[in-house]
Amino acid sequence: MEKIIIKGRERLHGSIAVSGAKNAALPIMTASLLTREKTLIHNIPDLRDVRTISDLLRIFGARVEDRGNGTFEIDGSSVHHHEAPYELVKTMRASCMVLGPLLARLGRAKVSLPGGCAIGERPINLHLKGLETLGAKIKLEHGYVIAEADRLKGGRIYFDIPTVTGTMNIMMAAVLAEGDTLLENAAKEPEIADLADMLRKMGAKIEGDGADTISITGVTSLHGVEHTIIPDRIETGTFIIAAAITGGEVKITNCIPDHSESLIMKLRESGLEIKPGKTTILIKGNGKIEGVDVETSPYPGFPTDMQAQIMSLLCIAKGTSIITETVFENRFMHVSELRRMGADIRIRGQSATVRGVGGLSGAPLMATDLRASASLLLAALAAEGESVISRVYHIDRGYERIEEKLSKLGANIRRVR
Ligand code: EPU
After folding, report:
1. What is the pTM of this model?
2. E strands within 58-135?
3. Is 255 known to be catalytic?
4. Which residue's CA is the nearest one to ligand 1's atom 37?
5. Which terminus of the chain has a smaller tally of CB atoms within 10 A, N or C?
6. pLDDT one-digit tens code per residue, 288-312
């Protein structure tokens, strides 16, 4: 078991480049199942979840080749198998996004139903309802979703909740369906627009991505493509907070500042100096952070994937902050660990009241999920003394070589076995 050891209170300084977005890379790699031709994808981050999706695509018969430097070549010419086994799906829920492409390409898919998750129930009922509207016959058997359709037919789908992977799943099914599909109350996250860009380059007809109504006209086949994944806005946000929490001065490069707008606005409100450029963000921490209230919501609102990290910062802010989580029902798992570091946090329902304390102290810590582990790491950077974070495999799902990147900025951080 690997652990990350951090000695806190080093001010971070220097510049750091953001990697490709995990939540764009996963669906985009999945979309390569939609063509018999080769796809070449650049800026894929080196993450555990990327290795999981590669293994899954290989199970279906695709050839997935890591060409190095973040470039993958995926050859879907011999895709023939349609079953995503429990062993892989249980390690990564995003695996359920293969449902749409497999149905569109092979006319059938058998995908293990993802179970509960550390951050909430996370059902996939809206994915299934959408596929049914496109004409798929769906049954649940022995823990698996079995979906079949000769050829999907376009339809009108209203999502009760804007679901990110649900929107992507249906979009990937609809591009090869017969006729027109309208997705209403669709999610608007930038990763959806990145997937739509890739699909359009493959020959798909999609309009409106990035807004809440997406229209798709099905085509009979898609072709190979070369595509570069957008930068990861959650990694960007995590580095912004790393700079702020240590009172450091950091330039983040290779990012899209617009994608972090809600976070930047919130941090400015708390007194932080942030200067976005075209593809850079400069943060000057002065160590003086005021408490602010935060409420998560779908994009362009404040991202639930940044809720745990901003909580770590607000633990040492001046005054009281109220953080309300509206997207997932159980996303405060980091709170009990932060309390062990001296944080004053009280939870009532979906809100956490954070009273700023003078400082945190290092402690042995347990990561529970990806973003919760990022928040512990950030708190440890600010804490006095040593913190040892265990179960770091959670952090490796979504952050590429985090300890290398942070130590280049001057953090005292190392990984041990
Ligand atoms: N929901 C339903 N039924 C569905 C689908 C979703 O009730 O069929 C509910 C969920 O339970 C949740 C809400 O709708 O309460 C929104 O969930 P959504 O479907 O948008 O989440 P997701 O697609 O499963 C993606 C990201 C998450 C991120 C959320 C919200 C990927 C692979 N995952 O999940 O990322 O938190 O959107 O932005 O894109 C992470 O990277 O750490 C992560 C968890």
Report:
1. 0.98
2. 63-68, 71-75, 83-84, 108-112
3. no
4. 164
5. C
6. 899 999 999 999 999 999 999 999 9
